[in-house]
Design a protein that fits this description.
By secondary structure, the chain is mostly helical. It is built from nine helices and no strands. The chain is globular and about 65 Å long.
Length: 257
Amino acid sequence: MLVAAATLVGLLVGSFLNVVIWRVPRGESVVRPRSRCPGCGTEISPRDNIPVLSWLLLRGRCRSCGEPISARYPLVEASCGLLFGLLAWRFGPEPVLPAFLYLGAAGLALALIDLDHRRLPDALTLPSYVAGGLLLLVPAVADGTWGGYARAWLGAVALLGLYLVLLLAYPAGMGFGDVKLAGVLGLYLGYLGWDVLVVGGFLGFLLGGLVGGALMVAGRKGRKSKIPFGPFMLAGTLIAVFWGQQLADWYVGAFVG
């Protein structure tokens, strides 16, 4: 029931994320005005704003003018619902769950914005330090896991510091938005453990290198081409949240122990 409830909440949050993804990079309010059809300007009615279902019933078109509605909207909603359900399955009814649900929602929005605009807006990354810090404080108080909470902030400093050094050493390799996002991801990964932090940080570079190499082999990118790195950082973090400790244990057992 928890997984089902989290999935439903995720679908609703995903609908709001579509607004965030469109408006935040443009400096627009995410509250007003209400969502409208880009073709005829008609406000989207509540019955046409049900996540995924409304798009299917309308066959991907505006009820008023018949303008096509991108399939990306229901895909974002479905992705957020799936992500929330998986996070509920991963953490169960624990006080830490809301913190990682926030990370899932913010991370999905940031990944898509970075793919669209090649930047990570401060309007999302900087408040995530506050939101993450407060939400992770809940399990620290409830369960007395103050060591994990302190480790979370040390992880944030460690990953942010690493990315800052890399930026200063090779400015063309990443942007300052990646550095600020690294601190947020380090906060969450550090809470889960040092092994998870190392795995999540490494996977971001590994995934970015593999995809970048594949694009060069396919002739779609050159050696000097820039690709958004935020999605790979977030993907590496997501994998580490679910399987970071298992991957660390496997590596140690196979290559060290």
